[in-house]
Amino acid sequence: MEILNSEFVRVLTAVLQILASLFVFVVGAGLAGVIAIYFIDKNQTSQTIRRNYPVIGRFRYFFEHMGEFFRQYFFAGDREELPFNRAQRSWVYRAAKNVDSTVSFGSTKPIKERGSILFLNCPYPTLTEDAHEIDSVLIGPFCEKPYRPGSLFNISGMSYGALSAPAVQALSKGAKKAGCWYNTGEGGLSEHHLSGDCDIVFQIGTAKYGVRDEQGRLSNERLRDVASHDNVRMFEIKLSQGAKPGKGGILPGEKVTEEVSKIRLIPVGEDSISPNRHPEINSTSDLLDMTDRVRRVTGKPTGIKFVLGATNWLDDLCREIHKRGIESAPDFITIDSCDGGTGAAPMALIDDVGLPLKESLPYVHDLLMSQGLRERIRINCSGKLINPTDVAWALCMGADFIVSARGFMMALGCIQALQCNKNTCPTGITTHNRKLQRGLVPANKAERVAHYHDNLVHDVELISHSCGVNEPRKLRRYHARQVMDNGQSIALDRLYPYPKNEISESSH
């Protein structure tokens, strides 16, 4: 027994000696590291804080980076954050998970805040048995293959490359379940977009990714190849987008993988910077020529996407359409808001260029009405429209369809980490890092995409029925009011009067 005890003491002593040596080594190495960092910081010339406060000055940059995450969870109120506050995101998360989205006790929304929208319930709301299915709308009546979309709420342009393969697969499968379309974004058509067998809108960006020849020009042959897929139902020529009007797409080189390179026909690992406009479109005539070319080559509806800034070109566009004939018009227009989202954009553009949807949507709708083109040209709109109120407002203002990108990203699990441009997205949505992608299971997230779509459309129907109409597209401006600076509200049809030639319905 004494021998065993002495052996135990000997082993324990040896272990403690090793641990002590290891502790001394770690402390020594750590101290040496701190000293090394001290001299590095003291002698570098690029950052004043680190030079004046060696070592501890580095914490400033760490806290600055972590601040956006702490604010989100600990300090910001439910309705304080930008671009989307916690109340907005929470509704999307609940809708995507298909869990109870009711709230209790009372609203936390500041209803007297300038710009708030208040819908006007009527004394005799639509009974459930009197409600209609949402009317379908035909796009491209003069096309060989016109399109009648299955939903008024659809997935906006998000490219493979900006998004990961699992994210695109989940969106494709979810769009199929929901019966809505999925816009490819300007990055071309990938097998991931096709994987879910959903309806697809192919976006033609300024770099013509996926439909370009070796010189970067639009290729009829590649257009036909894309159009040969029955899932591709429409083509959208992107002139600009809300987050960066006047600037082409930006895909950091670390996201340009071999697969992305093959789809876009660009070098691997190099930044993908699209031109800031289509080189061959320099006038209204050029724009209609390209629209007509894509429509003739593909046989499918073709429209344009832009964020509105200057407006006189739209007057020229209407005049040129009447000159050529109504069939020459774009089959649809997608209006993006200046507060739209993107994976990467210069702050000067994302903050300060372009008009918000609250100005551009009624302007474009009313212009087309006054020119007798509203029934010919369908209107899509996008830009922070992720909740039922936002979508119902857009329908009141005249939109035929609403598209959302960030709403569906949140349905995938986006936590607004603001890492989209860094290939470090913690939810696997905007990264090509396989370890980070592992958490995003397409089959599971596809269900959430469909639930989000279905629950949003359901709540839009709730609003429309409360206003006394039997389906959402019958909402008009007189069904809602907007709060002004003095805290009082004004009817939307007084704030944005309809053109004289629009037939107005009597108020309920």
From TrEMBL:
The chain crosses the membrane at residues 12-40. It comes from the Bacteria. Keywords: Membrane, Transmembrane, Transmembrane helix. Pfam families: Glu_synthase (PF01645). Residues 150-469 form the Glutamate synthase domain. Belongs to the glutamate synthase family. This is FMN-binding glutamate synthase family protein.
